[in-house]
Task: structure prediction
Amino acid sequence: MKLFEFEAKNILQKYGIATPAGAIGSLPEEVELLAGQIGRPVMLKSQVLVSGRGKAGGIISASNPAEARRLAAKLLGSEIKGSVVRSILVEEKVAIAAEFYASVAVDRQAKKYLVMASTSGGVDIEQVALTAPTRIARYYVPPLTGFNREAANDLIAQLPNLSQDDAVAFGDVIHILYRIAWEGDAELVEINPLAKSTSGKLIACDARIIVDDNALFRHPELATHSLSQTGDTVTEAKAKEQKLAYVELDGDIGIIGNGAGLVMATLDLVQLFGGKPANFLDIGGGAGVEMIKNAVTLVLSKPEVKSVLINIFGGVTRCDLVAQGIIQAHNEFAVRKPLVVRMVGTNEEAGTQMLNQIGVHTHTSMEEAIRKVTQL
Amino acid sequence: MVQGITGNEGRFHTASMLGYGTKIVAGVTPGRGGQQVENTPVYNTVAEAVSRHKADTSAIFVPARFAPDAVLEAIDAGLKTIVVITESIPQKDAIFFMAKAESQGITIIGPNTPGIINPANQVHIGVMPTRVFRPGGVGMISRSGTLTYEIAWHISAAGLGQSTCVGLGGDAIIGLDFTRVLAMFERDEETRSVVLIGEIGGNMEELAAEYIQEGKYRKPVVAYIAGRAAPVGKRMGHAGAIISGDTGTAKSKIESLLAAGVPVADKPSDIPKLLTKPL
Result:
């Protein structure tokens, strides 16, 4: 789960990392009020979950409240890289002397948390990583012992040209950052830039936190994170509510299958045979009738979808239950779109018989079914 | 032993494993000690089960919230191999128990794995549909579940068979990886060739390609990689199936495997053909 910048900054504040003065507004009048409260030129930062929002015009400055209101009116409701701007973080403009970088992220290959710090922070950090990687200090945290203050100091000591005071302050920040990541079950906690202001303070000017979806059950504080504000499409949000693993694509052949690898392979073959998948949908193992009905209905309900391919290799998944789910969806859905079904495995005869009764023929071969649907 | 044996999943698959020939000596579910599942005695703790039975392997059928503790319990009791079927385990917990297992020389398979099967020895640990496998010389290492069965089905239909099929699991943080299992297959007399079934996300396939290129694995190997059509930045079902920026693409994996001399199938059904192609 990606958190918004303002949510990430709230968390940083709670843990004692300085952030610029600011607050959220979702109406132009609110933005005007907040800009007035700050009393200086402000940054209007669109709260969207896409990267590169700055370059796409999502971060603009306003020199007075009236201008802030005018610019907010244009930003709110507009789209930044496909995401609708529903709120704006109105922030004081920080006078920046230097930009640092700090992050803690799960490194899957190392199976450890990786802490990174650099004095070459800012928008070009990715370039730095490619062309001057030694400017980024790295530390893989030993899982059994954790990240202590000494390790944090050692990491910062690798960075050149830092004053004693700055080194201590930077060490404080990364030490806290690790705690935020560990306690918050984060996949990523990143501050870029961690600005050194002209008055010498370290301030987190932009922050990103991605929380491990698998750990959400133990973070009730995130339950209020509104689904409608995420980067999900309407159908993706609906799928999440129904606990369906669904990713929207831009083609016209709806795809449903049991098993992520199998579904990915199905998408690949549809593409290989010249078709355009409309989505990825994995019903997982052992799905019940209701889940299957929901899955088929969801895919059918997208207007762009002209036909649906269902690929089932039934181990624990029962083909008769899949057939029932398909039939229920088929009977209740007003529009008739062609369904192509591949069905092998547990109870395949029963499933096939049931589908034949509604005029749906089943295939044994995955490739045959895919060729059929791409030729429709 | 089976941890979580009294749950629906635990029960169902214990019956399947026993029916196939797997030697399950005990089950563990806290609070259900004294019961029996499929004539297998159930204990409250792993320690208790291990004190009464010679068990060296545990299959974890415990729900995600409690699975990490179950794994730690198995590690503490000194089980040598732990097969974690459970999906959706928090990454922080996986990071911790992986490190603990490694520090004690314990092998973890998974999480989010369909398990492991050896048809000749009639052993399967996990949820794989046994009917698609038959004894033979093809080793399989896969990050998928049903896609593995699909490919196994084609291999069996072609008259070949499987030595051992290992499900690595669909998560981002997993125990055994392609390289480690390749090393095991190198030493395994039953295995004459290997199929790698990979997908987008991470760089496990690239590392395997490097391993092969360095000459460390010398038997024939072919591959199938899922996710050529996957978009960037979206999790495709498996927690580990996500392209981040430009790392983890199917293209990168296919290219590195081809560069290492590993044929990569365009379609799952092409695998048997690639296996029987003269070298």
User: Anything to note?
Assistant: The mean pLDDT of chain A is 94. The first strand of chain A starts at residue 22 and ends at 25.
